[in-house]
């Protein structure tokens, strides 16, 4: 009987060991699958690794902030190995471009020049990068993720890193100070007249942080934001049979209509319900609705 018991224990032990090996294999397999899926769908949400800007109040005191141009490019963060969109998806850049970047975290804008957003947006979203297009793209650096020290200190670090890299496609974003709101507004009007999108204000003593915080602000003569399409209105007159306006919901839950800025093609083939779009507006009405909202484009989330 003891021999039988010992045999059964040994036999059961073999089964248990076999089951453990199977479970270990499955866990490794699905872990790899999850990793691949994370690369395809995005590893993180934008507020997990990116500092996002709030709207600047024109009456606020700008003296505690460093000011820079707001570039109309594609936001990208470099982790020393890959470039990422705000959605967390990997940007497929040429090998030669990636090899020139330093092995430190960087945050900035992939930029071709003022009023060339559509060009750079299309270029960086190709599955097979176009070398000639990427030769025109500059990586404008304005932040050093996870670095210690306040923003002023990080700007100095960025300048040192870019200088050591010695590559004209890696550029430090120029930062400057102003003395009062009036001077800031004059700077905004001047740079906007030259084709810039607007200004950014970053609090000088801010430590590195992510999400939408009171450390970073955008200042524009015309503001823009995102909203989700939840319906349409029917067109009238020359727009009969087409979309008259989008019914949208803002990120704050405000529902309103956008009829301006819709081309004939967009009215005939509107983005599907659930799509996120970018729109411009001129402040708010007394009822809290965006004033003169105008459709710009489908939101380029990745």
What does this entry look like structurally?
With 302 residues, the protein is an alpha+beta fold. It contains 8 helices and 15 strands. The strands form 3 sheets. Strands 5-4-3-6-7-8 form a 6-stranded mixed beta sheet. The longest helix is centred in the first third of the chain and has 40 residues. The radius of gyration is 25 Å and the shape is globular. The N terminus is likely disordered.
In DSSP terms (H or I, runs of 4 or more residues), the helix count works out at 8
The helix/strand order is HHEEEEEHEHHEHEHEEEEEHEE
Provide the gyration radius in Å.
25 Å
The first-to-last residue Cα distance is 68 Å
Parts with pLDDT < 50 across at least 5 consecutive residues: 1-11, 16-44
Largest sheet, order of strands side by side?
5-4-3-6-7-8
Give the beta-strand count: 15
Output the structural class: alpha+beta
Sheet-strand content, in percent, reads 25-35%
Biggest pleated sheet: 6 strands, mixed
Mean pLDDT: 86
Helix proportion range: 25-40%
What global shape is seen?
A: globular
Features:
302 residues; alpha+beta; globular; disordered N terminus
Topology readout:
Layout: H1 2-41, H2 46-49, E1 51-55, E2 65-70, E3 74-78, E4 83-84, E5 90-91, H3 95-100, E6 106-111, H4 117-124, H5 131-134, E7 138-143, H6 151-165, E8 170-172, H7 181-193, E9 198-203, E10 211-219, E11 223-234, E12 243-250, E13 255-258, H8 264-268, E14 276-281, E15 294-298
Parallel strand pairs: 1-10, 7-8
Antiparallel strand pairs: 2-9, 3-4, 3-6, 4-5, 6-7, 9-10, 11-12, 11-14, 12-13, 14-15
